[in-house]
Amino acid sequence: MHLSSKNNATCNGAVFYSRWGLYLLFYISGKTGGGLKISNKEFFVNERIKAKDVRVIDPSGEQLGIMLLHDALQLAREKNLDLVNIAPQARPPVCRIMDFGKYKYERRKKDREARKKQRTITVKEVKMRPNIEKHDFMVKVRNSIRFLKGGDKVKVTVFFRGREITHSELGRKLCVKLAKEINDIGVVERVPRMEGRNMVMILAPNFAAK
């Protein structure tokens, strides 16, 4: 009977440590570009941490084991760093010794850089008739190039009037011709096709060409 209980305890312990290993790995094991991966949320730092015992990780990522919160805070103060609760759901909570002010500064800097890199793409329209003159066609080409260089998509619309609709192949040839003119900086995202009485083609910037 005692042996069975001991085996059960051993199994339960194995499951606990297995789960803890995965849990700990999820929160603290990965480093990206030399920085700790922490989600955007409010953290409990230093005296705001409410726990008797905590599992402590040092600045280099080494596990220091479980210790009293008071001792963990003292260790962080000796290093002129902060104690940050990075996994409050764990039992005991996981805390890392780190420069939290520096972390927040670098995080804000990365967020600003990420926002700057975000592209706001709009769709500009270029309209043509199937019998457009060469000069006017080149104006449409230059406009398309300008839009694409600005990072926008271009909706090329060839609109037909009356019996012109019976010659839709002229509109298709016109779209193909325009696509060839902007081939260096744009790509055909949607091939020409009829939408009601209009033929529509979508061009997108070729960022790889920049």
What number is the mean pLDDT?
Answer: 80
Domain count, please report it. Answer: 2
Strand proportion? 25-35%
Q: What gap, in angstroms, lies between the N and C termini?
A: 75 Å
Widest beta sheet: strand line-up: 3-6-7-4-5
Instruction: Characterize the largest beta sheet: strand count, sense, and whether it forms a barrel.
Output: 5 strands, mixed
Tally of strands: 11
CATH architecture classification name of the largest domain: 2-Layer Sandwich
Corresponding CATH superfamily of the largest domain: Translation initiation factor 3 (IF-3), C-terminal domain
Overview of this protein structure:
It is a single chain. With 210 residues, the chain is an alpha+beta fold. It has two domains: 34-114, Ubiquitin-like (UB roll) (Roll), CATH 3.10.20.80; 123-209, 2-Layer Sandwich (Translation Initiation Factor IF3). Helices cover 41% and strands 28% of the residues. The protein has five helices and eleven strands; from the N terminus they run αβββββαββαβαβαββ. It has helices spanning 2-29, 69-78, 100-117, 134-149, 168-181, and strands at residues 31-32, 35-36, 44-45, 53-57, 63-68, 82-87, 94-98, 123-128, 153-159, 186-195, 198-205. Strands 3-6-7-4-5 form a five-stranded mixed sheet. Strand 8, helix 4 (134-149) and strand 9 (153-159) form a beta-alpha-beta unit. It is rod-shaped and about 85 Å long. The relative contact order is 0.09. Residues 1-40 have low confidence and may be disordered.
